[in-house]
Amino acid sequence: MLKTFDLVLIGVMTAAAAVTYTIKHRAELKLDEVHRLEAEIKLEKDTIDLLKADWALQSQPNRLERLVKAYNDELQLQPTESTALVHAKELPMLKSEVPVPDVTEAKADGAAGAKGATVASAKGAAGPSKAQPVPTPAQRGAVELHGAVKPDGGAEDDADADADADAIETGSVE
């Protein structure tokens, strides 16, 4: 009986040793993978730093001015006028955001009535719908003050005014 018990204990110890060795081997493989990934991350960070330095060299104003002078005859570049810059709120609406004209308004307009009714029926208008006003872009140079009265009669709240004051309006690309 003692020999059977000894054989069982030897088997348990052998199995425990095999499991311990397997776990140790897997941990070493994971550690090697972690070191490999850290090396790849360092390489990517170094590449990003190198590309940023290269971009800084390529976009130096002196270099760009020299290139503009060298290729001015071919490119015919002109300085951007300050009036050519627009704000995002001054851009036209997307075609999908343009409101559908009211069927009753279209009929009242005479010749455009059939076209407006066709457009409204094509959009799936089942009945008379409310016409939505078409928003117009803000006038250039218009100043919005805190607590100013909006055109619809409501007062502008300070949260919107603070958000507008924090917005970058220089046209920079950062």
User: What is the makeup of the main sheet?
Assistant: none
Alpha-carbon distance between the termini? 82 Å
β-strand number: 0
Order of helices and strands: HHHHHH
Content-based structural category: mainly alpha
Mean pLDDT: 74
In one word, what is the shape? elongated
* Count of alpha/pi helices: 6
Show unreliable segments. 111-127, 142-150, 153-159, 161-172
Share of helix among residues?
55-70%
Computed Rg: 36 Å
Strand fraction band?
under 5%
Describe this structure in words.
The protein has helices at residues 2-58, 61-70, 72-75, 103-108, 112-122, 158-166. By secondary structure, it is mainly α.
Quick summary of this structure?
The protein is built from 6 helices and no strands.
Q: Strands, helices and their partners?
A:
Layout: H1 2-58, H2 61-70, H3 72-75, H4 103-108, H5 112-122, H6 158-166
Q: Which keywords apply here?
A:
about 170 residues
